[in-house]
């Protein structure tokens, strides 16, 4: 499942590739992938053909002002007309973690204001929220690349496929002849259209905790929130999106390895100094993930079909049974609250 660095990679790439492009047409091949309005999208959703037609009609002619991110949600902000609305200095930087984003003061309870500050304008137009869930992916091809074959699964023996393929559920065609394909093998992902004015009512946007790479996420704040879960196991607490957004199985394993802490340790058993090390590793490891364009050890691929390089830097995730890169001890894996965590029994205590 894509985590913060993978989603951030997609957002940065799409932002660069799609900005100011005009949607010429949209094809929805699997209706349940799309949705309208701020309500929660259920996995068993059914979408009528009239809703699908409305989804398509609303998007036709829209221009993409920017693509941003909040936790693991992608936010496409649209406009109509010939010129993009005036952009503020910080516009578009929601995705540029650590580059100016931290300059703002963020109140955890007013994230939507933050979204506005970051350039998702409430201008009476549309926004599209996208969750990739387990296996959602975007592939973008220029007009001249449309015959390029993509290996959409991260297995060396997976076949190269022309887009659209059998896992493509939505296709956006732009006026310059380029196309954006939304593929999803497991079909848990969604594309949801909301009016900008409805953003305030989107539950998924309200429920997230801190953006871990935001400057407003400080050690003091971190200590405050972990202490609300004294009996929680540290891995589980790290992965709780209501506390800190965007950390899943891969990055929690890697963060805890570098901090030298076993995944099953109870929060109350960890000293301040150790929690401080975990806090530093949250920021460092996630930044490394973004710098290396995400981890393709799972099913993640970039918008051109290439793989992220973070997997090369994994010390424990996906390495159970192999030697620890630091000390040579065999990496172990265990279940923690239903999720498998990998760790080195020597380096982590
Ligand atoms: Zn070790």
TrEMBL record:
Domain FPG-type: 315-349
Domain of life: Bacteria
One MF term in the entry's GO annotations: class I DNA-(apurinic or apyrimidinic site) endonuclease activity
Gene3D superfamilies associated with the record: 1.10.8.50, MutM-like, N-terminal
Statement: the UniProt record of this protein carries the keyword DNA repair: yes
Swiss-Prot/TrEMBL keywords: DNA damage, DNA repair, DNA-binding, Glycosidase, Hydrolase, Lyase, Metal-binding, Multifunctional enzyme, Zinc, Zinc-finger
Cofactor(s) in the UniProt record: Zn(2+)
Family annotation (Pfam families): Fapy_DNA_glyco, H2TH, zf-FPG_IleRS
SUPFAM superfamilies the record matches: Glucocorticoid receptor-like (DNA-binding domain) (SSF57716), N-terminal domain of MutM-like DNA repair proteins (SSF81624), S13-like H2TH domain (SSF46946)
GO biological process: base-excision repair
KW DNA damage (keyword) present: yes
Reactions that this protein is recorded to catalyse: Hydrolysis of DNA containing ring-opened 7-methylguanine residues, releasing 2,6-diamino-4-hydroxy-5-(N-methyl)formamidopyrimidine; 2'-deoxyribonucleotide-(2'-deoxyribose 5'-phosphate)-2'-deoxyribonucleotide-DNA = a 3'-end 2'-deoxyribonucleotide-(2,3-dehydro-2,3-deoxyribose 5'-phosphate)-DNA + a 5'-end 5'-phospho-2'-deoxyribonucleoside-DNA + H(+)
Family, per entry: Belongs to the FPG family.
Record text on subunit structure and interactions: Monomer.
Protein name (database record): DNA-formamidopyrimidine glycosylase
Organism of provenance: Candidatus Doudnabacteria bacterium CG10_big_fil_rev_8_21_14_0_10_41_10
